[in-house]
């Protein structure tokens, strides 16, 4: 089964926005076992879009188009695709009703006439409700070909693809795809890949692929078989071997769960409370924790102590410590974590202090030097890191490693196992 991708929008050609949809859809199609040999970007021009779609249909079984489904005059994707497929447009009462409901519940109460073009759908098409916007998605089928139209905003496209399109594409395949994501933290990409080199070199079915992210490495295990049960059975020995090799460094096998979600669940299970004491990360750790629904049950307080004065006043870091060792030091990180837990009455406190740059570094304390502390069960551990990259990347690495250290400290406590 061959799939082709066409992303629509002049703003993509001009570089006004980054085409993240292409990367997302390419990865998802690969996981489904679909072959993708071509993808293209077309501006908001009916003739050029028509030409691209006709070419794609001549060489591919499925064509996915993203963008150009909105209410404005330059949103031409649906009209052009329907013309190429030779299918007339007609108003879909259900889609019209959903558009009315959307505006009723939004800050924009007046529905301009151009919005109703979004309720026009190709006759006989599969209509995909948009739970996050007004433009519905559409699947057209004709002469053994499928054309899938998805809205351009990632916040609309991704939920629609995962909720509806993924299953549709999976059913087109002669084989069922079973895929599991093994998410690893606390180990580098090169180390992880070296540990599974033999598995990669000898893979057939299932296959294994690595994806590196800040602070973690994901391993995608994919198996194909006539049924999901059979495919899952094929993947089981590989998953068992990965657990054997990486143990507690695996924090989840659910690709939809983030490290912070797992940690919040972890804290809830053990009835533990958490405080964060941050300097160079400026509240990024607290933000990731509080992004998780229900975090209020475990998260007590987030302290951003950027200045030395704040460290002294809010975290009781000793003036002599700051003078003798400096704000960026193991000693300061230790006092931040220990005092943060004590002052807020939390079971655990994670602290971060460092130099994120691009200025402020010295030969003794260069940009990228970060100390991360964790106080848990009256024991305080501090780790020294030397991160590389620009300012934002250093802060993101520090945030991820702070969460990893928190998890490690709780896991290491035998009383909590």
UniProtKB/TrEMBL annotation:
InterPro entries: CinA (IPR050101), CinA-like_C (IPR036653), CinA_C (IPR008136), CinA_KH (IPR041424), Competence-induced_CinA (IPR008135), MoaB/Mog-like_dom_sf (IPR036425), MoaB/Mog_dom (IPR001453). It holds the Pfam family CinA. Residues 4-171 form the MoaB/Mog domain. Transmembrane segments: none annotated. PANTHER family: NICOTINAMIDE-NUCLEOTIDE AMIDOHYDROLASE PNCC, NMN AMIDOHYDROLASE-LIKE PROTEIN YFAY. Belongs to the CinA family. NCBIfam families: cinA_nterm, molyb_syn, PncC_domain, PRK00549.1. This is Putative competence-damage inducible protein. It comes from Fusicatenibacter faecihominis.
């Amino acid at each position: 089964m061959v799939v082709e991708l066409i992303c629509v929008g002049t703003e993509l050609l001009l570089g006004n926005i980054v085409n993240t949809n292409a990367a997302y859809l390419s990865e998802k199609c690969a996981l489904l076992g679909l072959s993708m040999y071509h993808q293209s970007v077309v501006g908001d021009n009916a003739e050029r879009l028509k030409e691209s779609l006709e070419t794609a249909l001549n060489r591919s079984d499925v064509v996915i188009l993203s963008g150009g489904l909105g209410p404005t005059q330059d949103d031409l994707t649906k009209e052009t695709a329907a013309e190429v497929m030779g299918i007339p447009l007609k108003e879909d009462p259900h889609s019209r009703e959903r558009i009315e409901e959307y505006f009723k519940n939004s800050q924009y109460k007046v529905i301009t006439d151009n919005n109703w073009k979004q309720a026009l759908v190709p006759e006989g098409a599969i209509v995909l409700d948009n739970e996050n916007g007004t433009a519905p998605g559409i699947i057209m089928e004709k002469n053994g070909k499928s054309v899938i139209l998805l809205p351009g905003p990632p916040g609309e496209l991704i939920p629609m693809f995962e909720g509806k399109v993924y299953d549709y594409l999976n059913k087109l395949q002669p084989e069922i795809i079973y895929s599991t994501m093994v998410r690893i933290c606390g180990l580098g990409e090169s180390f992880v890949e070296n540990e599974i080199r033999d598995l990669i070199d000898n893979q057939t079915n299932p296959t294994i692929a690595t994806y590196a992210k800040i602070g973690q490495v994901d391993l995608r295990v994919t198996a194909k078989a006539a049924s999901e049960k059979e495919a899952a059975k094929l993947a089981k020995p590989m998953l068992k071997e990965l657990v054997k090799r990486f143990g507690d460094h695996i924090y989840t096998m659910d690709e939809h769960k983030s490290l912070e979600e797992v940690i919040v669940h972890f804290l809830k299970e053990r009835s533990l409370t958490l405080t964060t004491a941050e300097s160079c990360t400026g509240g990024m750790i607290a933000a990731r924790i509080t992004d998780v629904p229900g975090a209020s049950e475990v998260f007590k307080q987030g302290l951003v102590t950027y200045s030395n004065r704040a460290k002294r006043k809010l975290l009781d870091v000793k003036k002599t410590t700051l003078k003798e060792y400096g704000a960026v030091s193991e000693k300061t990180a230790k006092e931040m974590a220990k005092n943060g837990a004590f002052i807020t009455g939390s079971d655990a406190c994670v602290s971060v202090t460092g130099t994120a740059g691009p200025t402020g570094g010295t030969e003794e304390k260069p940009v990228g030097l970060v100390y991360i502390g964790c106080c848990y069960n009256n024991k305080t551990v501090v780790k020294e890191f030397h991160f590389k990259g620009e300012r934002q990347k250093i802060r993101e690495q520090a945030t991820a490693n702070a969460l990893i250290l928190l998890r490690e400290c709780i896991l290491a406590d035998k009383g909590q196992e």
